[in-house]
Design goal:
The structure holds two protein chains of two kinds.
Chain A: H1 18-24, H2 41-58, H3 60-82, H4 94-97, H5 103-113, H6 117-136, H7 138-143, H8 149-183, E1 188-189, E2 195-196, H9 198-229, H10 233-251, H11 282-307
Antiparallel strand pairs in A: 1-2
Helix pairs in contact in A: 2-8, 3-5, 3-6, 3-8, 5-8, 6-8, 6-9, 6-10, 8-9, 9-10, 9-11
Chain B: E1 5-14, E2 17-23, E3 26-27, E4 32-36, H1 43-50, E5 58-63, E6 66-68, H2 72-75, E7 79-82, H3 94-103, H4 113-123, H5 139-150, E8 157-161, H6 169-184, E9 188-193, H7 196-199, E10 205-210, E11 213-219, H8 220-225, E12 230-234, H9 238-248, E13 251-256, E14 259-263, H10 269-278, E15 285-289, H11 293-301
Parallel strand pairs in B: 4-9, 4-10, 7-8, 8-9
Antiparallel strand pairs in B: 1-2, 1-3, 1-5, 5-6, 10-11, 12-14, 12-15, 13-14
Helix pairs in contact in B: 3-4, 4-5
The chains are: A mainly alpha, B alpha/beta.
């Protein structure tokens, strides 16, 4: 610490009246810094992550978004409940199985929401992550604290993954609650014809939740990259939602079969394989590998972009 | 002594436009450095480069003796900064916003967070509004919250970019007083402004930017002394007074109806009065205009400080 040079204030220097001074001088001093002590690295990082999660969850829009995610299974359960009984039992979908077992509300809702609602939620969160903070200027505040850029990006990504998990979990739990209330929860008939006891089926549902979370974690990596490209959070959100929706559309066109293995969304509906007995892994394994590839590629791209970026917002 | 902030040939180009053109900033440790210039003259861009937010096109930055942005992680914890106005999350309270910044600081002890945040809020007079959402803050409160953020931890240096922007006169005076008291504690302060009058009286050193170049820099008293004092005399005896002044060695003697002006130079004003009275000149009023930095800056920047706005 360099000794402070006696500062030669010009004679005119201190002219503000005393009453102004008294207002501002009562508190602690920003004295020349003692040797700063870094907090334990893991604890410090967890503190930043907690702050990040608090920021995400305290935002009204995000709370409303969770509400919408939870509303879908509830609406589905009610719709099936009040529908004309003669229309039931058409097809073999999860939806048709709901009448017999409320457990399937959770699965049906996940299959429905994986196409648009969950990706849209990730698109919004990832728009906020970097572009949102750049737009309102809080990004520069964090960077001069300083938060090293790699650390900030890593924290943002982990927060997105936790947010993804929370979103999927909310859908599943809301589905179980609504389905349980309206149809009851019973042992689950698997696609292989066997029956799983309810506790086993609930573990399977947790695996489904994790599988969907892995998909959203891959989408989050893509979203984080897009978020580093712009200072317009809405632009980033729209771009991510468009990319996700486009992939679902391309995946539904059989003529583009050669492209399908490259699409992030291609193996996601395989979550139904979780309800085979035993679990049928091969497709999901490919799905998880695709997720991993997207995570690696887009996190690296985000890092390459952000580490050097001029932050002038 | 190592300067707190030094730049060498610092340059930033955005495409074809040169925002900062090879400046050599020198902010001595312990100084209160007024970084002045019209809006758009490159002050904020320079500050952004000094803090590692943007990369220089050319040149180097040394902050607290360490190269930036290379040693950013070691240097910035010792620096509190308010860059280009306050920026916070609108739907969080003032305190929650400071908590977030404190949580981001690896060097901040969470056990003392509450006390440090309250102290920072108190110091800028915002403790009563700590629970209010930032969105509901006035511009003056936002500025003060920005300064509070820079004061969360003990600092060796503060970089305050336009901290008085948008404040009313009372708010400006309070911020000025705060800066002066921090400076008196030995904290090096770089304070930028497009209004000389807002920071002139608290600065020990000054640097003046004009269209991306540093046109003047040095101790404030030296810069002030580089302009000579003038004298203006109100008298009915214009011709006689002018004669006395010229004989005493005053230069640029100019007469008008009932008044004479001249550059005082090394002559003491009381000697001028004595000589005038001795010569029988009726002295109604004699005013000495000490050098006004404002004039110097208008000369240096070629325009008023608000030009181009």
């Amino acid at each position: 610490m360099p000794a402070a040079e006696p500062v030669g204030l010009p004679a005119t220097a201190i002219s503000a009246p005393d009453e102004a001074a008294s207002d501002l001088q009562g508190a602690a001093l920003a004295a020349p810094a003692p040797a700063a002590v870094a907090q334990p690295a893991v604890a410090a990082w967890l503190r930043l992550l907690r702050s990040e999660m608090r920021l995400m969850l305290s935002r009204r829009r995000n709370q409303a978004g969770l509400g919408v995610l939870a509303a879908i299974p509830i609406v589905m359960a009610i719709a099936v409940k009040i529908a004309d009984p003669s229309n039931q039992h058409q097809g073999e979908s999860f939806l048709a199985s709901i009448v017999g077992n409320g457990f399937f509300v959770a699965l049906a809702a996940l299959v429905v929401e994986i196409g648009l609602f969950l990706p849209l939620a990730i698109a919004m969160l990832s728009g906020d992550a970097v572009a949102g903070e750049a737009q309102i200027g809080t990004l520069r505040g964090l960077l001069v604290v300083p938060v090293p850029r790699t650390r900030l990006l890593a924290t943002k990504y982990v927060a997105l993954v936790l947010g993804s998990f929370l979103g999927v979990l909310v859908v599943a739990v809301a589905g179980l609650v609504a389905g349980g209330a309206l149809f009851g929860l019973h042992p689950v008939a698997t696609l292989s014809g066997t029956t799983l006891a309810l506790p086993v089926a609930l573990w399977r549902l947790l695996l489904v939740v994790l599988y969907v979370t892995a998909f959203l974690a891959a989408l989050s990596a893509l979203g984080l990259f897009v978020s580093t490209l712009t200072e317009q959070p809405l632009g980033a959100t729209v771009a991510v939602a468009l990319i996700s929706t486009t992939m679902w559309i391309l995946d539904s066109i059989p003529q583009l079969g050669w492209l399908h293995p490259w699409l992030l969304v291609d193996k996601q509906v395989a979550l139904a394989d979780m309800l085979r007995d035993p679990i049928y892994w091969p497709t999901m394994r490919l799905g998880l590998l695709t997720d991993l590839a997207y995570v690696v590629v887009f996190l690296l791209a985000a890092w390459a972009r952000f580490a050097d970026k001029d932050v002038s917002g | 002594m190592t300067p707190a902030l030094a730049t060498a040939g610092l340059t930033k180009r955005f495409g074809a436009q040169t925002a900062v053109d090879g400046i050599d900033l020198d902010v001595p440790a312990g100084a209160v450095y007024g970084f002045l210039g019209p809006n758009g003259s490159g002050k904020t861009t320079t500050i952004r480069m000094a803090l590692g937010l943007i990369r220089p096109t050319a040149g180097t930055v040394t902050l607290l003796g360490r190269p930036m942005p290379g040693d950013l992680g070691e240097v910035l914890p010792r620096v509190g900064a308010l860059v280009e106005g306050p920026a916070f999350h609108p739907y969080l309270s003032g305190r929650a916003n400071l908590e977030r910044l404190d949580a981001a600081d690896r060097f901040a002890d969470p056990r003392t967070a509450r006390r440090r945040i309250d102290a920072a809020l108190d110091r800028v007079g915002l403790l009563h509004a700590a629970a209010k959402r930032y969105r509901a803050y006035s511009l003056g409160m936002r500025q003060r919250l920005g300064i509070a953020a820079a004061l969360l931890m003990p600092r060796e240096m503060l970089v305050l970019d336009e901290p008085t922007n948008g404040l009313d006169p009372q708010g400006t005076r309070e911020v000025r007083q705060l800066i002066a008291s921090l400076g008196a504690e030995g904290v090096t302060i770089l304070v930028s402004s497009h209004l000389l009058s807002e920071v002139e009286q608290i600065c020990t050193h000054l640097g003046v930017m004009r269209t991306g170049t540093l046109v003047a820099q040095g101790r404030a008293d030296e810069l002030r002394a580089s302009r000579q004092a003038t004298v203006r005399l109100a008298t009915p005896d214009v011709a006689a007074a002018a004669g006395v002044m010229e004989r005493m060695g005053l230069s640029d003697v100019a007469t008008a109806d009932q008044s004479v002006t001249a550059v005082l130079g090394d002559v003491a004003s009381e000697d001028v009065v004595a000589a005038l009275v001795g010569a029988g000149v009726a002295v109604r009023e004699l005013v000495v205009n000490r050098a006004r930095l404002e004039d110097l800056f208008i000369e240096l920047t070629g325009e008023g400080f608000d030009a181009g706005r």
